[in-house]
Amino acid sequence: MENYFIIDIETCPFDITLYESLDEKERIKLLNPIDSRIVAIGVRYRNETKIFMDNNEVKILNDFWNEFKSAKQENKNCQIVGFNINHFDMPFLVSRSFINNVEIVPFLLKNVIDIREKINVYRYGKSKGKLCDFGRLLGLKVSETDGSHVAGFWKENKLKELRGYLENDLMITEEMFKRANETNIINIGRW
Predict the structure, then answer these.
(1) Which CATH number fits the domain that encloses residue 161?
(2) Measured between alpha carbons, how far is 30 from 136 in angstroms, rounded to an integer?
(3) What is the DSSP string of 116-127?
């Protein structure tokens, strides 16, 4: 597990009132790098969890990229791991960094491991299952809340709840990653 940098981000729309008035399908559309921002980034590396959370998104992004830079300096082969990371987290991180003029740490997409892609054999969009669904199937402690609660936590300044939710998601992601390693699923290649 020393070569892996597990991440998860939490986002919140700029217009929380509009977000709260929408149905679930419409809410998901609003969670994009133009209409939303990053409110927290969780990292799991070398058995340590770090949560970057602040009102200032630039600070969150700088803290995250500095942490990743340190991991890359420590281990140049460090791989980024996450659940649905290629379709949400990484595009969001890079886009919000671009919008905020924050320098990123370059990475190769081949060094990004999306656990959802691996366990669904790259059939994203045709497969079912959220992180909490897989967590339950593995018998892990799954939070009663989900990503739809993040905006409410942020709006109501419930940072302890947001932190707990993010820490739990990181734990589930790490356990899924371990299982994918044990079952050799992590070695499925796209090409």
Answers:
(1) 3.30.420.10
(2) 27
(3) HHHHTTT-TTSS
